[in-house]
């Protein structure tokens, strides 16, 4: 059969490779970003009840109305912006489908899409499938004096031109763990005012922000919300990544286009999970307490790494933390991740995997990404192994 691949550069993802390597070598997997514990039993019981109550057939294409109403109420309470639950909120098959549907809806052949590098791995394949041209703009890499990645807004503004259709942002940021501040929203407002660009804001980790800071959702600013698709994830919020349920919030004109794609990609999303989530969301305590829950785990990993030759870096959000391994090895990041997994039994993800060219020197800064969404005993066992490195 003779055909040309639409994604010739896409193979097995680094997450699959590293997870399989961890399994093969009986390593503790701190690589792939998922909890090793169950969701709240109350939520599990609500799913079971929904099944027994008959919620097992197709729900409405845009999502169960009660769930969309609950999402609208949450966003209003947290960020002060009202999205109409009937026309401006769409429940998707995970945040990833929300991203894909949004990119396919708005990016046309030849359009440029600016994205911040390092970036989540689904962005570029989605842009390519839409016929678009990705334009990565790198964050400023950390230094000894400045141990966090930094956003270069002037460089981002400079990458936008008449061919640019969309800017994709992701904060709290995976993989670096940095977050937006009020001043960053000011910069984004300036960019939108000058260019009228559409922003796709991946806010999957909106409820995991540390040290007393607030999540700076684009929904906080009317000028940004009017030009943005805001995406989030129930999987990250409720420790149920395998359920694959997320949502898109956007003005009605944008939501209408997203739904056109959504209905032909998946049509709709699991009924009993949606019904259960609508009920569970009535109590805000689980998502309001999530930052404190994960901050304890971040601190446990951070302090544990101090007893190793790896140097932990500050994490402002997400359930990831970066560590500098330059005192241990001068291997490129992917090779170091494989070595740590196979020789010392702790699986990690190389930060270079989040760059367009993982093998380039400018993509390798001697950093590995650790996931701390794990039970305390899992983290402690990993720290014991890392102390021997």
Automatic annotation (TrEMBL):
<protein>
    <submittedName>
        <fullName>Methionine aminotransferase</fullName>
        <ecNumber>2.6.1.88</ecNumber>
    </submittedName>
</protein>
<dbReference type="InterPro" id="IPR051326">
    <property type="entry name" value="Kynurenine-oxoglutarate_AT"/>
</dbReference>
<comment type="similarity">
    <text>Belongs to the class-I pyridoxal-phosphate-dependent aminotransferase family.</text>
</comment>
<dbReference type="InterPro" id="IPR015421">
    <property type="entry name" value="PyrdxlP-dep_Trfase_major"/>
</dbReference>
<dbReference type="Pfam" id="PF00155">
    <property type="entry name" value="Aminotran_1_2"/>
</dbReference>
<dbReference type="GO" id="GO:0016212">
    <property type="term" value="F:kynurenine-oxoglutarate transaminase activity"/>
</dbReference>
<dbReference type="InterPro" id="IPR015424">
    <property type="entry name" value="PyrdxlP-dep_Trfase"/>
</dbReference>
<dbReference type="InterPro" id="IPR015422">
    <property type="entry name" value="PyrdxlP-dep_Trfase_small"/>
</dbReference>
<dbReference type="InterPro" id="IPR004839">
    <property type="entry name" value="Aminotransferase_I/II_large"/>
</dbReference>
<dbReference type="GO" id="GO:0005737">
    <property type="term" value="C:cytoplasm"/>
</dbReference>
<keyword id="KW-0032">Aminotransferase</keyword>
<dbReference type="GO" id="GO:0030170">
    <property type="term" value="F:pyridoxal phosphate binding"/>
</dbReference>
<dbReference type="GO" id="GO:0010326">
    <property type="term" value="F:methionine-oxo-acid transaminase activity"/>
</dbReference>
<keyword id="KW-0663">Pyridoxal phosphate</keyword>
<keyword id="KW-0808">Transferase</keyword>
<feature type="domain" description="Aminotransferase class I/classII large">
    <location>
        <begin position="27"/>
        <end position="386"/>
    </location>
</feature>
